[in-house]
Amino acid sequence: MSRRRDTLFGLALVSAAALALAGCASGADDAPADGGGEYGLVDAGVLTVCSDIPFPPFEFEGGDNGTGYTGFDIDLLDAIAQSLDLELAIVVTNFDALQSGTALLAGNCDLGGSAMTITEERKANIDFSDPYYDSLQSLLVPEGSDITGIDDLDGKRVGVQQGTTGEIYATENAAGATLVQFPSDGELWPAIQAKQIDAILQDQPVNLEHENADSGYVIVEEYDTDEQYGFAFAKGEKVELREAVNAALQDLRDSGEYDTIYDAYFTAN
């Protein structure tokens, strides 16, 4: 939504006009006078974020921030938006369109926030913020499965999310496995429950969420891939916004608010 001041019509006393001008000047340091116009936003006064949902605990339906969504990424972005005096809006977007940069170049959103690993390949099409989360890959299987690790995947059907680093890791390391691509975790999780696949190889926090929610599934192996997540921006565009997001992210770390948001999703795990 745009923030607009009511236009004053008619005659006004000089003293009243001066007071009004003083009021505008006093707020100039607190918020952008043009609703964040210097950031080149899709919608003035709004930080519009493209995100692939669901991908718990990073993004999923719920919360009370007015977007209809919550999760670690969403809450962190909401805090960043507030620090920039902007509202937050979420546009649900296919992850492949995000990681390829297509959705960002199309101008559908100001940035992508969707647990996206920073990679050299993606940097060819995307500019990233500073890293905000360190992640691992992992292998989730039904309790009692004969799969105890990646070496047992020969001849098995392994679910992966298309376009992700989990898919890349499985392609390079799951010898003999049949990789079954899904557009998101929203399809991966029901697929293993329906026995359509034998395992899921994806980001550890997401598999951990499933393990905690259902004792019938267990993570049997984790893989230290030195991955870090970053917020994504269209290549060569929105430089001022990216710098502002980085500064806000650092402020949240310095103030301890980042830790508060992080602890809400990960410390209990």
* Beta-strand content: 15-25%
**What topology, given as strand order, has the largest sheet?**
9-8-10-7-11
Which CATH architecture of the largest domain is right?
Answer: 3-Layer(aba) Sandwich
CATH topology of the largest domain, what is it called?
Answer: D-Maltodextrin-Binding Protein, domain 2
Q: If you compute it from the alpha carbons, what radius of gyration comes out, rounded to the nearest whole angstrom? A: 22 Å
Largest sheet: 5 strands, mixed
Relative helix content: 25-40%
**How many helix segments?**
10
How many strand elements?
12
The run of helices and strands is HEEEHEHHEHEEEHEHEHEEHH
* Global mean pLDDT: 88
Q: Class of the largest domain, according to the CATH hierarchy?
A: Alpha Beta
Shape: globular
Walkthrough of the structure:
The strands form 4 sheets. The protein has a 5-stranded mixed β-sheet, with helices on both faces. The protein has a 3-stranded parallel β-sheet with strand order 4-1-5. It is built from 10 helices and 12 strands. The two termini are 37 Å apart. The protein folds into 2 domains: 37-132 and 230-265, D-Maltodextrin-Binding Protein, domain 2 (3-Layer(aba) Sandwich), CATH 3.40.190.10; 135-226, Periplasmic binding protein-like II (D-Maltodextrin-Binding Protein, domain 2, 3-Layer(aba) Sandwich). The chain is globular and about 55 Å long. With 269 residues, the chain is an alpha/beta fold.
